[in-house]
Structures are given as structure tokens and as C-alpha cells.
Design a protein that fits this description.
Elements (H helix, E strand, L loop, with lengths): L1 H30 L20 H6 L11 H4 L13 E8 L5 E11 L3 E18 L5 E19 L4 E14 L2 E15 L5 E15 L11 E9 L5 E7 L18 E2 L5 E2 L3 H10 L2 E10 L2 E8 H7 L10 E9 L2 E8 L8 E8 L1
Antiparallel strand pairs: 1-2, 1-16, 2-3, 3-4, 4-5, 5-6, 6-7, 7-8, 8-9, 9-12, 10-11, 12-13, 13-14, 14-15, 15-16
Length: about 350
């Protein structure tokens, strides 16, 4: 009986692998300019952290093998037997009753590789439904649902590959939309597991059902990430380069022009070197993990891009800074982190990991 089930699952995975490849080629061929800067993008739930540890490090995904299934499901090429029968639950509190809940589970098969399923639910809270004159006539809600089916496979002791298939459903009042996204990833893990590199194409895809009959693109991103564990200190350094497919990440804000105009109408142009450096630094994410004991870790990270996007002129801001802590006990791990977004509010992340 078990051999029959194993054969059936193996056949299903082979079919799924072929389908993922076919769908990926179709999506890539139709992606066109939708991923370029200047277009409208939606389904922001795809860009949010689903792991407190990843959020603490300020990274979009981790390049190294880890027993944190909430982090692994973001980068399927790090999905391995380390995550066998792991369950992850995460909760994020944003602003004004906006919150996110994430679930993940993984199971490893001998010949097939590792599979994981996940769910992200982003709740935007309750809103007043009003007439044009402002009269309140009711209430409505808005939410995003992102489902993840992950597959990861070890090709040899150093090379790992993986893919995510992610249907997304958005429900805003009476409007609904459906989209399909795919992640493709490959990782190299050193033999001694002290350093790792991952290349991932995230959120390739398009809408299946348009939201409010509008054309929106998914938040596509091509990223390269690496980690290095120090030889003589309990520290691991993380770094990532984001948006490899586009150079310009600076927003155009007519209310906050970069060129300065004095009282006489004289215009002082922004220094070109400053502009290039600002754009360059927006592509980088850095993080540091300190693990003095197997029972806990402390992590911190920084994003220059978030700092620039969330800064307030002539005011100090810690925007872009992230930090957190994790505690391990037996089969349980509890993680907490915080990302500094704005002086008036920042998201808090909590993850509970259980090895069944």
C-alpha cells in the first residue's frame, strides 16, 4: 500500500514539475514590461515577510539552510529534510487594525524531495461605506489570501533548487481579483555549511481575474543573496542585492523635489554622485545574526531603501532598522522582531515554530 502511495506521489510531483516549467515559460513570455518601474502593481502580500527571523534580519529571504520553516517557504531552494514535519505560525501587527497571519508545514520524501504548503492572510480591517456627501451607509472589509505550494530538491551536497506556486485572491468590498505567481530559486551551500548563495526570481506571473477591471502587475523581483558564518565568532552575516532587473528605484515625488529652489527662484540641482549612490544603496539589504547559544539568537538588519521611503524631512528617523530575538526550547522556537517603518508606528512580528 505504501509503495503504491509513494509511486502515486512521485508521479504527481513529476507532473507538477513539468507544469511548473511550462507555466513559468508562459508567464515569462507574457511578463514583458509589466515588471518594470512605472507600472501599477498590486498583491502587496507577496512582498511581505512571513517570518519573524527574516524580518529581523531585514532580508526578503534567507539564502542558507535553516530549521525555520516560516523563513524557508519564502526561498524554496532551501527547503530540505531539516524542515521535515515542521509547522510554523506567524502573526504580524501593522497599523490601524491591519494584520497578517501565516501558516506553513513541510514534509520530506526520499526520492521526490521536500514539499511545503503555506497560507498568508492579510486583513486590512473594517472600513466605512459612505455616500458622496459623506453619509455612512454600511461597513466593508478588504483582504488578500496567498497560498503557497513549495518544492525543494537537493541535486548534490552543495546545489539545491526549488519552486513556489502561489495563487493569490484579493477581496476588496464587492471587488475580487485572482492572480498566479511563481518563484524559481537555486542555492549553493558550502560543504561545511559556513556560507551560502541563492539566486531567486520572485513573483513572476500575472492576473487571472482582473481586480475592478484594471490591469495590475505583480511585484516581480530578481534577487541575489548570500550568508557567511564567521569562523571564530558566533555570528552570521547576511547580504542581498534586490531588483537586479532594474536600476532606478528612486520614487518621483513632486511634493518633495530633490532640486532645491531658494527665495530668488534659483535652482540648485541635486549632486549627481549623491543621486547615483542613493540609487545604488537602495538595492542592498544587510543583516547580522548573533548566536551565542543554541537556545537563542539576536538579529538585526538595515534597509537603506526603506529609510529613504519612510524618512521625514528635518527629523531623525530609525526607518530601515530591524531587530529581533529567537528562543529555542526542545521542539519549540519562539521568535519576535520589529521593523522600524515610521516614528508613529512600526510592524511587530511573532513566529512560533514546532517540530512534530
Amino acid at each position: 500500500m505504501f509503495s503504491t502511495i509513494s509511486i502515486a506521489i512521485s508521479s504527481y510531483i513529476n507532473i507538477m514539475r513539468r507544469n511548473i516549467l511550462i507555466i513559468s515559460l508562459l508567464i515569462l513570455s507574457s511578463l514583458g514590461l509589466k515588471s518594470q518601474i512605472g507600472g501599477s502593481s498590486i498583491y502587496s502580500v507577496l512582498s511581505l515577510h512571513s517570518s519573524a527571523k527574516t524580518a529581523a534580519l531585514g532580508m526578503d529571504f534567507l539564502p542558507c539552510l535553516t530549521d525555520d520553516i516560516s523563513a524557508v517557504i519564502t526561498n524554496p531552494s532551501t527547503l530540505s529534510d531539516i524542515n521535515h514535519n515542521d509547522v510554523g505560525f506567524s502573526f504580524t501587527s501593522f497599523f490601524n487594525d491591519i494584520n497578517q497571519t501565516s501558516l506553513a508545514y513541510s514534509h520530506t520524501f526520499d526520492k521526490i524531495g521536500s514539499l511545503a504548503i503555506g497560507l498568508q492572510y492579510l486583513n486590512y480591517g473594517n472600513f466605512d461605506m459612505t455616500e458622496e456627501n459623506g453619509d455612512v451607509v454600511g461597513k466593508f472589509t478588504a483582504a488578500d489570501y496567498s497560498f503557497t505550494l513549495s518544492w525543494g530538491k537537493k541535486l548534490d551536497n552543495n546545489v539545491y533548487i526549488g519552486a513556489n506556486l502561489k495563487p493569490i485572491i484579493s477581496q476588496y468590498e464587492s471587488y475580487s481579483g485572482v492572480a498566479l505567481a511563481i518563484d524559481l530559486a537555486a542555492s549553493y551551500q558550502s560543504t561545511d555549511r559556513t556560507w551560502a548563495v541563492s539566486l531567486m526570481a520572485r513573483n513572476m506571473g500575472s492576473q487571472i481575474k482582473k481586480l475592478a477591471n484594471e490591469d495590475f502587475s505583480l511585484p516581480f523581483d530578481l534577487q541575489l543573496a548570500a550568508s557567511k558564518k564567521l569562523a571564530h565568532a558566533p555570528m552570521t552575516i547576511y547580504a542581498a542585492i534586490t531588483d537586479l532587473h532594474q536600476w532606478n528605484l528612486r520614487e518621483d515625488d513632486p511634493l518633495n523635489p530633490r532640486d532645491e529652489i531658494d527665495l530668488n527662484g534659483e535652482i540648485t540641482k541635486e549632486n549627481k554622485f549623491v543621486g547615483v549612490a542613493d540609487n545604488l544603496f537602495r538595492h542592498f539589504q544587510i543583516g547580522l545574526e548573533f548566536t551565542p547559544s543554541e537556545y537563542f539568537y539576536i538579529a538585526a538588519g538595515y534597509s537603506w531603501k526603506r529609510n529613504r521611503e519612510m524618512q521625514i524631512n528635518d527629523a531623525f528617523s530609525a526607518a530601515g532598522l530591524s531587530y529581533g530575538i529567537g528562543i529555542n526550547y526542545s521542539r519549540f522556537r519562539l521568535c519576535y522582531s520589529r521593523n522600524e517603518y515610521h516614528r508613529y508606528g512600526s510592524p511587530n512580528y511573532i513566529s512560533l515554530l514546532i517540530k512534530i
